[in-house]
Amino acid sequence: FLISFFLTSLVACKTADNDSTPAPTPVEPPIDVVTPTVPIKTSVNEIDSALAVETLKILSSDEYQGRKYGTEGYGKAITYILDYFQEFNLKQLDGSYTKKFSSVISGQTVESTNIVGYVEGTEKPDVFLAIGAHFDHVGIHNGSIYNGADDNASGVGGLLTLAKYFSEHPPKHSILFMAFDAEEAGLQGSRDLVNQ
After folding, report:
1. Percentages helix, strand, coil for the chain, rounded to the nearest 5?
2. What angle do helix axes 72-87 and 154-168 make, rounded to 10 degrees?
3. pLDDT tens by residue, the chain, 196 residues
4. HSE-up of 32 (CA within 13 Å, CB side)?
5. Are 80 and 163 in contact (CB under 8 A)?
């Protein structure tokens, strides 16, 4: 069988090499290329990638216990995010970064916490762009910590990195930064914010 497969593959490759059919001419896609009228001033070097990596490492460490609702690690994650929102001097909505809401987790109604702050735009402060990431994860199962590096400590790292950048370089439009809770229980945190 292997000899037969090898010979068949060899013949197929040899036939492909001898094929004299010309390659098709590439077709340009029917799109217009728009050249920006305003030069882009942001360089990649201005973005603090170290903060993104640090956040990823910290939130996905065993110390944070997989950030499941009700655990000490979950509480630490909230504090970690709040500390950076305060350090970046993000503005608060309605006098607080935390937005409490009721969610159903494992069949129980519990109080959950979204974390929200914003950078006010320089020209259109009443027009908001939104950037969000959820911070909760699934915790510990059968003695193993599910650290949630890519679900979603990395997203929170990106969120905080952008919050830092835009707090130092305010854009024309306002930007809302949202760290959602109860995503693992069915996107409940983001739904609550959308419904407000």
Report:
1. 40, 25, 35
2. 20
3. 333 333 333 333 444 444 454 545 544 544 444 444 444 455 556 787 899 999 999 999 999 999 988 889 989 999 999 999 999 999 999 999 999 878 877 788 878 889 999 999 999 999 999 999 998 888 899 999 999 999 999 999 999 999 999 999 999 999 999 999 877 777 777 777 777 7
4. 3
5. no
Distance CA 155, CA 157 (A): 5
Which bin fits 179, alpha (ψ -120 to 50), beta or left (φ > 0)?
A: beta
Tokens of residue 111, six digits: 């109080």
The CA-atom distances, in angstroms, between 2 and each of 5, 9, 78 are: 5, 10, 58
Distance CA 65, CA 148 (A): 10
Do 113 and 181 touch, CB atoms closer than 8 A? Answer: yes
In contact, 135 and 182? CB cutoff 8 Å: no
Helix H segments across the chain? 2-18, 49-59, 72-87, 154-168, 188-194
Tell me the one-letter amino acid at 156: V
